[in-house]
Amino acid sequence: MTWSAFSFPIVVLAIDLTVRVLGKSIARATIALSYPLAILSSVVVLLFEGLGEQEAYRIGFASATAYGVSTLLDVYVFQFLRERYNYWWIAPSISTVFANVIDTFVFFFAAFSNSNDTFMAENWIEIATNQSFIKILIGLILFLPFYGILLNYILKKINKDDA
User: Fold this and answer.
1) Contact 5, 138 (CB under 8 A)
2) H/E/C letters for each residue in 100-122?
3) By residue range, what is the domain housing residue 24?
4) Is 88 part of any domain?
């Protein structure tokens, strides 16, 4: 299991709250601004962990690409569902599943398909499937209730400030 099993569901939660409260254009702008930082931080962490430069750049680029693709798609999926369903939990639930699957498979494909690491090159699909399942469970069981609590708090705060 990787750190993204815990960190990416938090990212999806933050993006979904941003879309709901501030709009999808602000969410997209936030993603665009954070993309270069995602590449830089991924590469730096991997280099400090002792990974070779080629592997660090490949995995760092894969990580940032997966983040960029999945979060931008999450904005649209979340907004699409939010506009069609009245229950607060439908859009974040489905977008959590969607974003985590896209993030995981884009990352593992970009990082390990045709990799010099024979084990990862041969097994990335199975590993990505397992990782997706774990991330979805964490997102739905741990973070969806937290999303509901935060959304309720934010909406009450906004309504109180408007009164």
Assistant:
1) yes
2) HHHHHHHHHHHHHCCCCCHHHHH
3) 4-158
4) yes
Distance between CA 139 and CA 135 in Å, rounded?
A: 6
Q: What tokens appear for 57 in the block?
A: 């750049």
Give residue-wise pLDDT tens across range 11-64: 888 899 999 999 999 999 999 988 888 888 888 888 888 888 888 889 888 988
d(CA 99, CA 50): 30
Task: Dig out the tokens for 120 from the structure.
Answer: 């990862």
Ordered alpha helix ranges (H), 1-143? 4-22, 24-48, 53-84, 90-112, 118-137
Determine the residue type at 149: I
For the chain, the domain total comes to 1
Which run of H or of E encompasses 146? helix 144-162
